[in-house]
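> run fold Endonuclease domain-containing protein
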Amino acid sequence: MQDHSSKALQRARKLRSTMSLPEVLLWNRLRGNPMGVKFRKQHPLGDYVIDFFRASKRIAVEIDGIAHDRGNRPMRDSSRDAWLRRQGVEVLRIPAAEVLRDVAAVADAVVRYCADPPPPSAAGAAATSPRGGGFLGVTG
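> ok
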């Protein structure tokens, strides 16, 4: 059974070739299965496309640029996150500025959080980060 719409699949294919700079920088760190953690980029799920997806743990990693703070985007993101949670997907939101500031630290935190099982320090990093879940922005 297909877990995504054909529209989402088409959008994912297009987004894979037009990723933002923060997405490209982070993908370059995540693409080689660091610590044995496999990520998919621009993964379709339902009617949505997830920036990075850890399928075996059902964790979505979203990179949020400033557009996510404007207009109806916060409400759309909230609805999207709620739908993903109902599908059993945890959502990590990371501000694009954090990726640009220190991509290595962000990649390390994401990989540790998504590892099997996550190291104890990963949970602490998420709980103590400044953006209601730290730069990992856990919403799931």
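The beta strands are 40-45, 48-54, 59-64, 90-95.
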